[in-house]
Amino acid sequence: MHQLGILLSGRGSNFLAIADAIRAGAIPNARIAVVISNVPDVPGLAAARQRGLAAIALDSRGRKRAEHDADVIAALRQYEVELVCLAGYMRLLSPGFIQAFPQRILNIHPSLLPAFPGLDAQTQAFNDGVQVAGCTVHFVDEQLDHGVIILQRAIPVLPSDDAHTLAGRILHEEHQAYPEAIARVLSGRYQIIGRRYVESAQ
Ligand code: GRF
């Protein structure tokens, strides 16, 4: 059984999409071992508890990054987590965290990377006048929103869109893309060649 650890800081809709996909059998042989938030009392934690999942707040306010990360790593180890999924985790990971889970940390970002890394990616894209937007699931490396791309989903920007409606449609794609990317990574049927994620023949 693959043990997933979810890190979040807020709403938790991607976490719920992953949980629903597991329940529906779309991520075979996997379970969510623990949900960790660096912000106490967020909806994502409450939703995890409601589903009977282990849910922990490890408040990062005022803490040195490496020290807070050490606590998060300890919790992930305690729950025997194999794959760490960042799902709206609004905190940079220290190099030590990334080295503790080599090629075992995923993130979802609401743009077609490498365009529009960082905060408010959907608004950045909208204001830049792009005609195609989307989301990216990628491995996490030491640079922000930068690691090897696993899967992207693209959507057109409609003439009727504003930044808010665009973000909503991107979020819908995120909820499909993240579970699919997790299932693919857990299958192990891929290689990383340079910066390219290449799926192996079945
Ligand atoms: C999503 O847009 C995700 O791409 C970004 O943060 C947001 C988290 O939303 N990294 P939610 O907490 O999963 O609803």
Overview of the structural elements:
- This protein folds into two domains: 1-102, 3-Layer(aba) Sandwich (Rossmann fold); 107-202, Formyl transferase, N-terminal domain (Rossmann fold, 3-Layer(aba) Sandwich).
- Helices cover 35% and strands 25% of the residues.
- The chain has helices at 13-23, 43-50, 65-78, 95-100, 121-127, 163-187; strands spanning 2-8, 30-37, 55-57, 83-86, 105-109, 132-139, 149-156, 190-193, 196-199.
- Helix 1 (13-23) crosses helix 6 (163-187) and helix 5 crosses helix 6.
- 5-O-phosphono-beta-D-ribofuranosylamine binds at residues 8, 10-14, 44, 87-88, 108-110, 171, 174.
Overview features:
202 residues, Rossmann fold, 2 domains, two-stranded antiparallel sheet, 6 helices, 25% strand, globular, binds 5-O-phosphono-beta-D-ribofuranosylamine
What's the short version?
It is built from six helices and nine strands. It has 202 residues and is α/β, with parallel strands linked by helices.
